[in-house]
């Protein structure tokens, strides 16, 4: 995984560094303390926890990627679904990696009468007691993640095409997507 730090990441670390240095200094200053090592470890863990939370928050606010023109087409010859689109860096800082998560759900022929996510669940003798035809054999939902761009500069766009195998037991499909910038 490629992650790029910008000036805000380093600023967060350097703002929290005095907490760690001050804690270690106070622990070493007390000569009669039995718990010197425990105090140093505690300050180090607090430093890691606070810097992790703040770096995550800075990452979410400075790295903004948007997805445009996402289209899907089913290729019957290869039994694959092709997703194509454009990803753009909308933020002011470089993005190390853009990940696209695609979710495909099986749809039935009477999709208007079926609520999203409720599908036929077999309840016969072979399914219940012997394990034939279990849900793991034919999942009704597939989730896959793809890296669609790396080292995306501010304002830069990148086209992508990805392929997902079309499950033979699907009657139709509905897709949803989410994009993550790191």
Task: Summarize the structure in short.
The protein has 182 residues and is an alpha+beta fold.
Helix-strand pattern, N to C?
A: HHEEEHEEE
CA radius of gyration is 25 Å
By DSSP (H or I, 4+ residues per run), the number of helices equals: 3
Mean pLDDT: 80
| Adjacency order of strands in the biggest sheet | 1-2-5
Structure description:
The chain is an alpha+beta fold. It has three helices and six strands. It has helices at residues 7-29, 36-62, 125-130; strands at 65-75, 80-89, 95-106, 141-152, 157-165, 173-181. Strands 1-2-5 form a three-stranded antiparallel sheet, with no helix packed on it. A hairpin with a 4-residue loop joins β1 (65-75) and β2. Residues 110-114 have low confidence and may be disordered.
Features:
three-stranded antiparallel sheet, elongated, alpha+beta, about 180 residues, 3 helices
List the topology elements.
Layout: H1 7-29, H2 36-62, E1 65-75, E2 80-89, E3 95-106, H3 125-130, E4 141-152, E5 157-165, E6 173-181
Antiparallel strand pairs: 1-2, 2-5, 3-4, 3-6
């Amino acid at each position: 995984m490629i992650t790029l730090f910008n000036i805000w990441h380093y600023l967060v670390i350097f703002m929290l560094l005095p907490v760690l240095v001050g804690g270690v200094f106070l622990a070493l200053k007390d000569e009669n303390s039995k718990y010197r090592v425990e105090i140093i470890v505690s300050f180090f863990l607090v430093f890691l926890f606070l810097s992790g939370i703040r770096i995550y928050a800075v990452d979410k606010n400075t790295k903004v990627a948007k997805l445009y023109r996402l289209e899907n087409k089913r290729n019957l010859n290869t039994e694959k679904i092709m997703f194509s689109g454009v990803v753009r860096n909308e933020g002011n800082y470089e993005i190390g990696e853009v990940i696209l998560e695609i979710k495909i759900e099986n749809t039935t022929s009477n999709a208007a009468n079926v609520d999203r996510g409720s599908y036929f669940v077999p309840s016969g003798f072979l399914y219940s007691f012997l394990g034939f035809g279990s849900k793991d054999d034919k999942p009704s939902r597939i989730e896959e993640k793809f890296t669609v761009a790396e080292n995306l500069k501010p304002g830069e766009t990148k086209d992508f095409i990805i392929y997902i195998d079309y499950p033979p037991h699907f009657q139709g499909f509905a897709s949803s997507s989410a994009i993550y910038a790191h």
